[in-house]
Design brief:
4 copies of one chain form a homotetramer. Helix content of chain A is 40%, strand content 14%. The first copy, chain A, is built from 13 helices and 14 strands. The radius of gyration of chain A is 21 Å and the shape is globular. The mean pLDDT of chain A is 96. Chains in contact: A-B, A-C, A-D, B-C, B-D, C-D.
Chain lengths: 406, 406, 406, 406
């Protein structure tokens, strides 16, 4: 039997930017016995979640649900729309943008990787003007797709997708627009249709509050048209059969039934709360978290306040301090997991997740754990981040969102 | 389906002094399907929990487990040992001592209620010398039992049971010694055999980290002897048949099977951590909590530092402040439940539970919730209790009690 | 961790007449974290279950819910209404009627035990004429209560409670009518108000499909009036405070919160199916089971077809065959639990439960287990009970009760 | 909230050949909160399951675990080892072999599809001599891989993989041997190393008793060598990074954490029972099932008794009877799911799963459901399959495999 928690008592605080804490309600829903994926009850479940997930992406177009984790959905976006040797314009916002680019290379595409030099690009969102310029220069329309990350999980920086859309339009370029919002969906506002995104990639283990294991492609008409001519080999990821069978609520191969139970519950929770309320909640907690970082006198990884992430906050440790040693100390003393620094930021920062099933006191617990851990690590702090966060929260009181008990 | 939580997201903080938060591990164990309470597997389960629970009471004598909540175990203690009209010496430590006394009256006993005048007795533990004096005066041995509460849940005051034992012995009085440690067991050190207690009463929903629904009588040889002559009517509560059938791991009537699953798991957790570690953990968190209260400039209900409870801390609100209004505000804004003031303390205090499945960050979350709530309620605080508690915890670092992951 | 099932694979078949199999849906509901039993969500839960349970008893009067198993509710019925030395007329239908009578003795009452001689009374229901005769003879109204069992779990015999009511009325006797329907409720039709019952006793682990641990007293106005003068000592079981606090959805002492979650779910399930459908389902399965027993050439314990229990069927083994040895063999080979013979029937019969969360195939599985076990035990069977039961089920097709999937 | 079961009471019987019924124990394990997939506890979990799963495949070589369902693992086997345009020799045993072949085409490979004409090949296992002959003819070694299905889920036929290995060896052909044992693993004996398989493909939702969502590639040294030169594009499915990171118990991208909890539990269960015991249990139930089909006078889809599947039995309905209408009737009346006829067998057969968490009474329940359903459908049966199965089970008594209760 599983006895995973190495700490003797109390609840683990999972404050990484995903997987986010899975609510009990969802864990209970997922423990419903697996049913026949060809039976009538499954069909009803399928139709429900396929309809509900569209509301989360703010789209009227199909959303493909894969029984695979988010990296697979990256691959699906590329191999359904592109052909070997195609040029794709990608933008370096951080570690995950870099991984997506590497994947494009592995699949035989030719990614061009735009971005700002050094670490600077990892502190700001996508610069839409750079994209526009590059597309204008591509008079031959060699570039088949523009790929950007909406919420860069490795840094805590979001990007203005509407601006990217405007850039593509301004350049009058026919490239597809593909966006990864794996960690942004259901935490930050996202509008697949309004922003004219052709393929949006997402996953289950972030704002949807599910365990990892299912992932998504929201697909525009233009993308489906492109898929008819795309020649990258594909089978498992192929949209056509899935979209066709989804009309009845089924899948061409065995779906991840118990995660779909969880998705059904998550949709009830999120749509029940209301997406705007969900976004406002994330913004409030993120602001309180940043107030704490500022009070500590530490630097926030995101250098552009207009694109602070509502999902996570990247905290840079002072020169000479190994951020992973601090994380380890906090884990051992306070039973809390924080996100590590990835790629170029290895050892230089830690990431505080404040997404999904999180509330004021969860955040405050996390911040006390950070503050105590930073002190135990011998780091001089300018002031109490905890006090600053409490000030923020008490001066920005959430309308007590009490629902009627049922 | 149950959707009880009226708050839209995040985990409720249950910081009342019981029911304490039930660990997921126990909830999962309790969801094992109910089995035949006369079958061989049940017998093995029964023997396991009957043996393990003795270690928690620190006794080699029988512990009777009732499929009933704690109030029933109070009644069991009385009706197994006493006869109509018997005089019992009880001591007023607070609301629960008062309720036990009322029960004795309801059952046709004659309780004498010792204690200090007014609210003073509710701020201190049992004064053993008062008991000794009363027993010495009872030369006719009219008093059949002395009943005291070990950890008064309504106030956050413990009592020195060893001292009460010495008092009875010093008076050379034959009265039975009965102790309620419903909220003390498995959080505060308790020694049924060493302290010469005749009947110890406890319940499931506090230090044992279980939902309410089972309760206990640990029973001395002297108490069992007394039960042979006790004439209060009894059937459901009768020890004799239960103790007899328990020898094979069974009960004379249907036991509360799924709570016994939970008890089995709780015993694995508590005995696996080690009772001394469990007690030290409670003491440390309680001290941090009191540091916070002191820093706020509020008064702790317990006026005698030598008997501060490791289970809960009673916090008095300033004159004119309705403690229940503060509790309601905290519940609505911060999704945290605190204990109300009971009986004589109605509206004058709130109680912070820090027992059972609680760790540093859970406590800190609770204290930030209190501090923010007190501020929102307009109460002037002397300083930051949260900062004081963090100071305490970082200067009294728990040995990082990491177990090997399995 | 619990690994209770001693069989390596497949699901245990719990075919005892209670605890009945707990549906997954209820186990999941019960795994909701324990909440504050004084908070607003609890109040809403309390009001819901207190209202719903009345529908199950078919009463408009209060139903008291105890955090204790069914034996406790027997005691509650007696001690709330009677005084030491009171005469109560009880009727011997089987082992449980006998235990209730013993309890009355233990509590200081004077039970008179009506019934047919030897084992005969254990094969038939209550003979209302005997009760009427005895009451007519009691011109002094010494008898304070008539106590009968509605569905005798030890034998599989129900009793006609309406007839008992008529008998009391015919005798124009003021005695209270108290009925145990611990194993009948929510499986067999029961009408607390229409039948003029004063106290109905029931429990959770039978037709309500819950684990054991809560129990009930449905209470008439007359019973509540009687309780004002009843002098048996009582505290835990006292109706008055409970009924008073229940008005707001709360209890005077800690309720069994997680079982109330389960009760809430059970009410949704049972009332959703509709009580009449529930009863018809039980009747159909019981008839199929009896068809099997008849085909085997074995005798049914209940000798009066008009009072066959819809809850369980008692099967007598041939002379010289130890029924418990057969049960043990079936348990070991086929991972199925059957009920043992109790009291006078020890070793002479086994009991097949077909109540609660049971359907055609569960019953058929149980009957194949019995048939194979009987054969392995060397018992000569007249024919195939399994075939007979299949014939019954296919010729009495349940209206396919498909609900719309949600 | 999910209320998927459209039947009012009792447990659904999931008797399709996968997803198989998930044991409660595994559902409980899967409800453990999701943890940090980069933390120390995850590493310990990862190492445990990566080690344990090798025992199930009987291999000392790496087993890659994908956070994707089984169809993905098919693709992984192909794209890690082959290059565009490669010829692969596949063998038509049924619907799933046909789907795998279609996938090979979709990925740009050139499958040759061996097999017997018409429906005959769907009634027998792989004919190794046909493979040997084809390979001998391939003197240029154009064929890069031989792909066969070990347990064809659409028909209930297994294939002799050792014989296929011998055929390849006899032809002295360097082709890789790839085997799909998605539905055979942990139900039928399978020996990756001994049989010299290069890539074995499997999934979670069959003999491993898990929900769908993870899948496997067991990989030989020769296959890994081939992967260095294979040119089908790949990223998500690429073995190299996964095998490298698996050395520490981690994955290069987010794994399906909660299904790995389930896998950990499943390994404990299966290895605890012992693989040989697991296989014998499946063989015994399968034989009883076939005894039933024979007694009904219906034909078994598998025409070669030497390769009857221990996992499922395909039952052909009489000419003119729509098997799906029978399945629907059984579903509606008896709350049981059976497998449909797939591909060439659409409407001509149904499939009874008897794999995974199944025991004697589950099987008997399923067979009574079939027998009653067949009768209600108006099909003339030769005799009682239920009686025949009971005869088989009682004359082939399983050693009562009682474990000591813990």
């Amino acid at each position: 039997m599983l006895k995973l928690d190495s700490h003797p008592a109390g609840r683990h605080f999972l404050q990484i930017p995903g997987p986010s804490p899975v609510p009990d309600r969802i864990l209970r829903a997922m423990s419903y016995p697996t049913i026949d994926h060809r039976g009538p009850e499954f069909g009803a479940l399928g139709l429900k979640v396929l309809d509900g997930i569209k509301k989360i992406f703010k789209t009227g177009q199909p959303v493909v649900i894969y029984p695979a984790s988010g990296t697979g959905a990256w691959e699906a976006a590329l191999c359904n729309t592109l052909s070997p040797g195609d040029t794709v314009l990608m933008y370096e916002t951080g570690h995950f943008a870099t991984l997506w680019k590497k994947m494009a290379e592995s699949l035989g595409l030719k990614p061009e990787f735009l971005g700002m030099p050094g670490i600077e690009g990892w502190r700001r969102g996508v610069q839409a003007d750079m994209i526009e310029k590059r597309l204008r220069d591509d008079t031959q329309h060699t570039i088949k797709a523009v790929c950007v990350v909406h919420n860069e999980t490795s840094t805590g920086v979001t990007s203005d997708i509407a601006a990217v859309r405007r850039a593509v339009d301004a350049a009058a370029h026919p490239a597809l627009l593909m966006v990864d919002t794996i960690s942004g969906l259901a935490s930050a506002d996202y509008r697949h249709d309004e922003w004219g995104v052709d393929v949006t990639v997402s996953g289950s283990q972030k704002g949807l509050m599910l365990p990892p294991g299912i992932s998504f492609n929201a697909v525009s008409e233009k993308a489906r048209e492109a898929s008819k001519h795309a020649r990258l080999p594909r089978a498992f990821w192929d949209w056509a059969d899935i979209i066709e069978m989804n009309k009845q609520g089924y899948w061409p191969y065995t779906p991840n039934t118990n995660l779909l139970y969880g998705l059904s519950e998550a949709l009830d929770m999120i749509l029940g709360e209301g997406l705007d309320n969900v976004f406002a909640r994330h913004q409030r907690l993120a602001a309180a978290c940043r107030a704490a970082v500022a009070a500590w006198g530490l630097e926030i990884q995101c250098a552009d306040p207009s694109v602070y992430s509502p999902v996570l906050t990247g905290v840079m440790t002072p020169e000479g301090v190994d951020a992973d040693a601090v994380r380890k100390l906090i884990y051992e003393h306070f039973d809390m997991s924080l996100g590590t620094g990835l790629g170029k930021l290895k050892g230089r920062m830690f990431r505080i997740g404040h997404l999904g099933d999180c509330n004021d006191l969860t955040l405050m617990a996390a911040l006390t754990g950070c503050e105590m851990g930073l002190k135990l690590a011998g780091i001089e702090l300018k002031g109490s981040g905890v006090a600053a966060a409490m000030d923020y929260l008490t001066s920005h009181v959430a309308k007590p969102a009490l629902k009627a008990a049922a």
